[in-house]
Amino acid sequence: MRPHRAAVALILALTLVGCAGSSATRSAPLTSSSASGTAFPLTMRDDDGVSVTLQAPPRRIVTFAPSATEIVFALGLGDRLVGVSGPYDDYPPAAKRIEEVGGAGDFGVDPNIEKVVALRPDLFLTIEGGDQWKARLRALGVPVFTINSTSLEDTFHDIETVGRLTGTEEAARALVARLRARDEAIEAKVAGEPPVSCFFEVYYPPLTTVGPHTFIADLLRRAGCRSVSEHARSDYPQWSVDDLVREAPEVYLVSSESGASASAVARRPGFDAIAAIARGNVRVIDSDLVSRPGPRIVDGLRALARALHPDAFA
């Protein structure tokens, strides 16, 4: 059975989130200042290792990842956003009114080059992957900057990076400080609790989970989970029901993107033999909160922590 188009897009997006480390650094002479204190022209190296120079704070921004869209809005720059990737750019609600530039490529997940150029962006903010279309946009004079969070800490770093790129450095620092405080409070609640063995379902069918080097795996560890897939050799491996019966996870976490309710999971052939499911410990997690490395990621961490350690949040 083939995954439907949205599922393919989800797996591709999740894979991209887990593929690159963050290395953005300010590297060029700075000669003028924005209102927030960030100096322009500004040159920074993105997570693809490409140096990008902006002459002034960008006024026309296109985002090509829902997480980037949420960061831009959280920094108070929604009025500068002229393009987003597609229908998954749905938060905040105002994002749904912005022109979509995606839909090209074999899976419909590449940008429409002509549409992007017509919007005259002075910053195109995206995630890792798509080297060919990125090169085309750069050749046409579009400043493409890649951010790619591989952990919660990396997300905080990338929010501050976007703040520097857009001349909203102070707002970004304040946002990250609030997110950090919430993260520390959540992790403190579960610090005294024994880790709970769990399984996280990204998609079904085929049954797909997360490997140890992914963004979601970092959240699971922080939330007090000992993932049964922590020794997987790939980022988004397929898993078998027989393995889950043997591994006997205490809690079964299922992404809402998988389109499953707790009762639907329990009705699948053979799933009733999995310990967590037999005990009724199936928890549906809002996939937007745990797969988008942006301002709502601490909400995702809290949702995971509560699912794993409900008594700590009673």
Structure write-up:
By secondary structure, this protein is of the alpha/beta class. It has two domains: 5-176, Nitrogenase molybdenum iron protein domain (Rossmann fold), CATH 3.40.50.1980; 192-313, Nitrogenase molybdenum iron protein domain (Rossmann fold, 3-Layer(aba) Sandwich). Helices cover 37% and strands 16% of the residues. Helix 6 (169-191) runs parallel beside helix 12 (297-308). The longest helix is centred in the middle third of the chain and has 23 residues, at 169-191. The chain is globular, with a radius of gyration of 20 Å. It starts with a helix and ends in a 6-residue tail after the last helix.
Helices and strands, with pairings:
Elements lengths: L4 H13 L7 E2 L5 E2 L5 E2 L1 E4 L5 E4 L6 E4 L1 H9 L6 E3 L18 E3 L5 E2 L1 H6 L4 E4 L4 H9 L4 E3 L5 H15 L2 H23 L4 E6 L13 H8 L2 E3 L13 H7 L3 E5 L6 H5 L8 H4 L3 E4 L1 H5 L5 H12 L6
Parallel strand pairs: 6-7, 6-10, 10-11, 12-13, 12-14, 14-15
Antiparallel strand pairs: 1-4, 2-3, 4-5, 8-9
Helix pairs in contact: 5-6, 6-12
Brief characterization of the structure:
37% of the residues lie in helices and 16% in strands. The protein is of the alpha/beta class and 314 residues long.
List keywords for this structure.
alpha/beta, Rossmann fold, 4-stranded parallel beta sheet, 12 helices, 15 strands
Structural class label: alpha/beta
CATH class of the largest domain: Alpha Beta
| Uncertain runs | 1-8, 15-33
Q: Helix content range of the residues, please?
A: 25-40%
Topology as H/E string?
A: HEEEEEEHEEEHEHEHHEHEHEHHEHH
CATH topology of the largest domain: Rossmann fold
How much strand content do the residues show?
A: 15-25%
Q: Main sheet: which strands, in order across?
A: 7-6-10-11
Query: Any idea what the radius of gyration is?
Result: 20 Å
Helical segment tally? Answer: 12
Give the overall pLDDT as a whole number.
90
How many domains? The number is 2
**Would you count the extended β strands for me?**
15
CATH architecture of the largest domain: 3-Layer(aba) Sandwich
Cα(first) to Cα(last) distance is 41 Å
